[in-house]
Amino acid sequence: MTEPTATTTTATTTTASAPHPLTPAALEGVRVVEMGQLIAGPFCGKTLGDFGAQVIKIEATGAGDPLRNWRLLKNGTSVWWQVQSRNKKSVALDLRQQEAQDIARKLIAEADVLIENFRPGTLEGWGMSPDELHKLNPGLIILRISGYGQTGPYRDLPGFGVIGEAMGGLRHLTAEPGRVPVRVGVSMGDTLAALHGAIGVLMALYHRKAHGGKGQVIDVALHEAVFNCMESLIPEYSAFGAVREAAGSALPGIAPSNAYPCKDGWVLVAGNGDSIFKRLMTTIGRDDLGEAPDLASNAGRVARITEIDAAIAVWTTSRTVQEVMDALGAARVPAGKVYTARDICEDPHYKARDMLLTQQTRDGYSVTVPGVIPKMSGTPGTVRSSAPGLGDDTDAVLAEAGLTSEQITLLRSKGVIQ
């Protein structure tokens, strides 16, 4: 089948029809085979693809990556898919068949990076252990993302991002005191694992280039990626026996930093710097607190946080969110409204920073998607192609790998490819 025409969206514009900037891609020439599905592995692939890596996504024949059917669908495909799978090519293989496994090996043999987020042992069951793949491609960098890692007593247990958030210590803290732990609202465990994986891939690429060309295995566990972001949780337990507990919207031990009610919503206020606290108290008409000697430092404010929070809430409750934002902005006190999707799409700062891009899908409609980060002056990320349909690129990729049209037709007739 022919490859659909890819629409280019740049990270320097908010429309899909603007010209492609003539700037080099940071990862141009890096070839990635992505064998993962859903979130963690594919988010890593998306990150590398945004900065120029050629990402070939191997999907199962039939339905493909389950993310295609997650959450809200348009024309039968998730709009989430349009973000997660941009800058990728889709090759559909039935990896239960030996011939499909042989094709996968052929693609991996020419790759710089392999991404997989299967349960440990899955690759080995297909005859694709790291040792076997490194015999085939000594420079291959293999990123393995799993619930509990490739070793340890829990390695064979199934693990999703939510489980990683629980074991990593995050879920214990995301609640109001005494109430049920809640989701962050997005798949934070998967995303953190993907970002740690991307960092690992970049370090391994650098090491391979600087120190002899050998590849290596990167082992990322979902819970460890979450745990790595838990700040002082363990040192505090080690030094003081203190078990940090849920604190709702407050930042324990840092004062004042909390969410405060307004007439029409909530505002987050971070008045925890010494000089910021004084300006905040002046703004709300409480110079008595701003000038109190025992509140000049954070330790004193923590001791009286209930009183301080109450004073701030009295002031915010009688005002709208915008009135609070205007007053605190003028006083140079960090504050922020709680944004919804509508707020983000209407916000001028998001637009000015090119964080809202209009992407033309292969189904023919336009959809607004998040822009590319981080912002890089010399090698900015771009959206070079829209998300593929299942198997859109199978023929083109296999032809590039050396298969003839007759061989491709035969493989399709056997159900090896789609």
Kindly describe this structure.
The chain has 418 residues and is of the alpha/beta class. The protein contains 18 helices and 15 strands. It has helices at 40-50, 79-84, 98-109, 122-125, 130-136, 161-167, 188-210, 222-227, 233-240, 274-283, 287-290, 298-303, 305-317, 321-330, 341-346, 348-352, 394-400, 405-413, and strands spanning 9-10, 31-34, 54-60, 73-74, 77-78, 88-93, 113-116, 141-146, 216-221, 257-262, 265-270, 335-337, 356-360, 366-370, 382-383. The protein starts with 8 loop residues before the first strand and ends in a 5-residue tail after the last helix. The relative contact order is 0.16. InterPro entries: CoA-transferase_III_domain, CoA-Trfase_fam_III, CoA-Trfase_III_dom3_sf, CoA-Trfase_III_dom_1_sf. GO terms for molecular function: CoA-transferase activity. Keywords: Transferase.
